[in-house]
């Protein structure tokens, strides 16, 4: 979007915020010039903010607590231990770059934040080829299951991690392996 398009977008939004019938809507009026001037300032501030955010290579330490508050950090289910600034920055960057998709890469990253090592991920899919159309599909026996084999010892609360960070439509079987 170009700068002029951004200005027009802000101008149209500002015009919509004016009360109906109270102001002259002609393009040559003082109100139209005022709306356009405010739109240019808002668009310039938007462009400057985007430029600053793209040039920042890393999060400044002074803004770390604001970033954590915006992203809902600290993570739930963590053990009460203080993290270094580098660890906190790593968690913020991982959250910003990661989509919540159930695959091995996501699980390794998520469990790595809690100091858990994923050994293996096994997915079970139920088969119902000859069942009738009105038979239940999400019973305990037919639920999609995922087996997580983790390296022992697991110090974190896996029930909390499953409840807060993994899809709820799956059943998770946890096995620790030394």
Protein described:
This is DUF2313 domain-containing protein. The protein has 178 residues and is of the alpha+beta class. Among the domains are: 3-55; 116-178, no CATH class. It has six helices and three strands, in the order H-H-H-H-H-E-E-H-E. It has helices at residues 3-17, 30-55, 64-70, 85-97, 104-113, 158-165; strands at 118-124, 145-151, 171-177. Strands 1-2-3 form a three-stranded mixed sheet, with helices on one face. Helix 6 (158-165) links the parallel strand 2 and strand 3. Helix 1 crosses helix 2.
Features:
single chain, alpha+beta, 12% strand, 3 strands
Q: How much helicity do the residues have? A: 40-55%
Output the structural class. Answer: alpha+beta
Return the average pLDDT rounded to an integer.
83
Number of separate helices:
6
Q: Compute the separation of the termini in Å.
A: 55 Å
Instruction: Report the radius of gyration as a whole number of Å.
Output: 26 Å
What is the approximate shape?
elongated
Question: For the largest beta sheet, what order do the strands appear in spatially?
Answer: 1-2-3
Question: Oligomeric status of the shown chains?
Answer: single chain
Count the E strands. 3
Low-confidence parts lasting 5 or more residues at pLDDT below 50? none
Mind summarizing the main beta sheet? 3 strands, mixed
What is the beta-strand fraction?
A: 5-15%
The H-and-E topology, N to C, reads as HHHHHEEHE
Organism: Acinetobacter baumannii
Protein name: DUF2313 domain-containing protein
